Amino acid sequence: MTTPKLPQTNWLALDVGGANIKAAHSRGEARSRPFQLWKQPEHLPGILKNLVSTLPPFDNLALTMTAELCDCYANKAEGVTAIVESALSLTAPENIHVWGTDGDFHTVPSILAQPAQAAAANWLALATLAARFAAKGSGILIDIGSTTTDLIPLVNQKPSPQGRTDTERLRSGELIYAGVRRTPVCALGHEVVWRGAPTGLCAELFATTHDVYLTTGDCDPDPSDHQTADGRPATVQAARDRLARMVGADRETFSTADANELAGTLDSMLLDRLILAGQRVLGSNTPCSAVISGSGQFLARRVARGILPPEAPIIDLAAVWGPRASDAACAQALLILAAETIPLSMRT
What pLDDT score was predicted for residue 137? Predict the structure, then answer.
């Protein structure tokens, strides 16, 4: 299937997360920008303006979010309201179309009156679009980002989720709060087999999964990136230091071989967890295909291969949309859905 051709009107889609803000524009550009919203929620309007300034002008804005769960907000309603109001700093309310968990777009006044409708709805936009690329029959969407994983069952090229809210989806296994960058290593388990013996892990934020995948080579080093557990650079050497602390060691007693062994074990723990969750989501259905996306698509592919029959295809949205758009997959999907479904009479 080819990506639908977007109309001439200029669309911008925003996916506002608590740790990353993602954008996609109808002229083909996509962005993903880290922003720790829970630390400085008052800066969100300025961050959005700065991000939008790097993209072409737009006429209409499609909006979705997950950042309403941030603990800087008293509750989700306050979070949704704050995010919508931040979007209003970009354009007039009549130009904003907010995606809901009912699989439809809503006006700003309707969302402000019923904010729960917009809370954590981004996954449904991606699942709706991704399902079109899947084979007929049973399938699964595997979207792995920095913080979370979505495992959405697909039936005859349509999403078939059991849950809609975060709580329902955590219960069904369709949402796993684990990703390839921000997940604390201590959340993967309380002990590992390392150096041939069971070894406890320190229950501290000494290292994250980003350190695991810097060590395995799945993530590229970036000396300018200091959004790590200790604020030191996202390099292989610094990752080794962070992993060492997870077993109460330091660089003097924790070799490169130790780091490689521990990272490999931790990677296997996360992979096994996600495969089991995917099998649970699918139940007795044998999947005919998988669609993968997100900044953790390298892991999503391995999860898919652990779930699918050997001959079943894996459709990588990075190959369909390009790597940047796949990293911002929910925003890219929202962009296409908005351009397809918003009536001309509602557009500027």
Answer: 93
Task: Please check whether residues 40 and 162 belong to one and the same domain.
Answer: no
Question: 238-293: per-residue pLDDT in tens?
Answer: 999 999 999 999 999 999 999 999 999 999 999 999 999 999 999 999 999 999 99
Residue with tokens 């684990």: 178
Q: Are 140 and 240 within one domain?
A: yes
Supply the CATH number for residue 190's domain.
3.30.420.190
Alpha helices in 251-293 (DSSP H): 256-282
Q: What is the pLDDT of residue 9?
A: 81
Q: pLDDT tens across 223-238, in order? A: 999 999 999 999 999 9
Residues belonging to the chain: 348
pLDDT for the residue 347: 57
- Give the span between the Cα atoms of 290 and 316, in whole angstroms: 8
Question: Is the same domain home to 166 and 246?
Answer: yes
Give domain status of residue 128, yes or no.
no
Q: Domain containing 340 — which CATH number?
A: 3.30.420.40
Task: For residues 118 and 32, state if they share a domain.
Answer: yes
Co-location of 271 and 329 in the same domain: no
Cβ contact 148:270 at 8 Å: no
3-state secondary structure of 141: strand
Residue 64 is assigned to a structural domain of this protein: yes
**3, part of any domain:** no
Instruction: Flag whether 6 is in a domain.
Output: no
Q: Which two tokens stand for residue 289?
A: 């295909």
Question: Which tens digit of pLDDT belongs to each residue from 310-319?
Answer: 999 999 999 9
> Which residue, chain included where needed, has tokens 């369909």?
320
Residue 348 has pLDDT above 60, yes or no: no
> What Rg do the C-alpha atoms of the chain give, in angstroms?
20
Q: How far is Cα 169 from Cα 175, in angstroms, rounded to an integer?
A: 5
Determine the average pLDDT of the residues in 292-315: 96
Domain range for 342 is 11-123+324-346
Compute the half-sphere exposure of residue 255: CA atoms within 13 Å on the CB side of its CA. 5
Listed in order, strand segments (DSSP E) in the chain are 11-16, 20-25, 30-34, 60-65, 96-99, 105-106, 138-144, 149-155, 158-159, 175-176, 191-194, 197-200, 289-293, 314-316
